[in-house]
Amino acid sequence: MTGSSLRVAAVGTGYFSQFHYQAWRRLDVNVAGICSLDLQEAESLAQTFDGCRSFPDFEQMLDTVQPDVVDIIVPPTGHMDFIKATMARGMPTICQKPFTRSLAEAEEAVDLARQAAVPLIVHENFRFQPWHMKIKALIDAGKIGEPYQVNFRLRPGDGQGPEAYLGRQPYFQKMTQFLVHETAIHLIDVFRFFFGEIANVTADLTRLNPHIAGEDAGFIILNFENGVRGLFDGNRLSDHRAEDRRRTIGDMLVEGSAGSLRLNGDGEILFRAFGENDEHAVDYAWNNTGFAGDSVFQFQKHVVEHLRDGADLMNSAADYLANLRAERAVYASSETHARVELS
Q: pLDDT of 243-257, one tens digit each?
């Protein structure tokens, strides 16, 4: 595919798809087909891309467009059917998270991709948020010395009352596994990005809003194989101080022998050296557009560079299974009130 403009086909026109299409529009690709149950919405979106067609049927779109990559932007209930269709045709595929409905389905999808010998990639964009990329670079450069622990306080403030989530993603209310499967999985992936593989987990989950089906608050302790410890402290009902509470959806503290890095809700990173009282802002550039520091664009750019130029790939579905195994362990720990080993 070197030197050519990738042909992209996408399925889904829900709330979050806007960020995918905005990003594709800015990349050197040819969005050739859009499929949706809402054909009017698909037609409207297709008109914003040169030569793009709308389709009511997914397989018809694949056979007509013959894309170089397919972007699946629908809830998990539809993932496997679409993945089976793309893998049967040997088409590289990006799939939105939450990835499939279960670990077993995800493992089946990975097997299909392995048999087809084509990339299957999970759209997990949190590690591509510029503050997480910068913190990773600072950790790797030894800024905080030997890492000790990381703590993330999730506080988006969007989960109160009977109207919670209905304005953007109403299916959230019906998810029987919610906080971890939909949200904490992002931070599990970010923590793995920072510190590697997880050895064991301990969790205590609860539901605060009686109007939803799943859990919306909880604590998760992660012990990493390298000795670093992580704490996820999640509560979707409370908020945090931020100009835009959806930018970072919370605050992070990363601590080590030489100092600590603190991420606030506005995307600022502050460093405090060990033994000192003053924090100093870390100077770094990021683009305040799209979703969460333009992370969707950065993720899709990363995929394009892999498909077109052979660049190393993050977020393969095979690698993402480690996140889902950690997720399964979190639920098991909360149910059994015991630590769960992942090794």
A: 999 999 999 999 999
Q: How far is the C-alpha of 4 from the C-alpha of 17, rounded, in Å? A: 25
Q: Tell me the pLDDT band of 169, cut-offs 50, 70 and 90.
A: confident
DSSP state for residue 325 in the 8-state scheme:
H
Residue 3, class by beta-carbon neighbours within 10 Å (0-12 exposed, 13-18 middle, 19+ buried)? exposed
Which residue type occupies 128? F
Kindly state the helix (H) or strand (E) to which residue 1 belongs, with its residue range: none
Sheet containing strand 340-341, edge to edge, reads 280-281, 269-273, 259-263, 250-256, 147-154, 229-235, 217-224, 198-206, 340-341
Tens of pLDDT, residue by residue over 39-76, are: 999 999 999 999 999 999 999 999 999 999 999 999 89
> Model-level pTM?
0.94
Tokens at 268, concatenated: 């600022």
Q: Is the pLDDT of residue 205 over 50?
A: yes
Instruction: Please tell me the distance from the alpha carbon of residue 142 to that of residue 137, in angstroms, as a whole number.
Output: 9
Are the C-beta atoms of 138 and 194 separated by less than 8 Å?
no
Distance CA(59)–CA(142), nearest Å, equals: 49
Residue 229 vs residues 68, 119, 181, 294: alpha-carbon distances, Å: 41, 32, 21, 29
The per-residue pLDDT for 3 is: 41
Predicted pLDDT of residue 1: 45
Of 275, 285, 287, 247, give the one whose Cα is nearest residue 263. 247
DSSP classification of residue 35 = E
Separation between Cα atoms, residue 117 and residue 339, nearest integer Å:
37
Tell me the domains of the chain and their CATH numbers.
6-123 (3.40.50.720), 127-286+323-341 (3.30.360.10)
Using the CB atoms, write b or e for 12-42: b if 16+ within 10 Å. Answer: bbbeebebbbbbbeebebbbbbbbbeebebb
Alpha carbons 108 and 129: distance in angstroms, whole number: 29
The span from the CA of 113 to the CA of 287, in Å, is: 34
Q: The tokens 């690698």 sit on which residue?
A: 319
| pLDDT for res 144 | 98
